[in-house]
Amino acid sequence: MSDRNVIAKARRQRRVRYRLKQLNAGSTALRLSVFRSSKHIYAQIIDDTAGKTVVAASSADKDFKDSLKTGANIDAAKQVGVLLGKRGVAAGISKVFFDRGFYMYHGRVKALADGAREGGLEF
Question: What domains, with CATH codes, occur in the chain?
Answer without folding.
Answer: 3-118 (3.30.420.100)
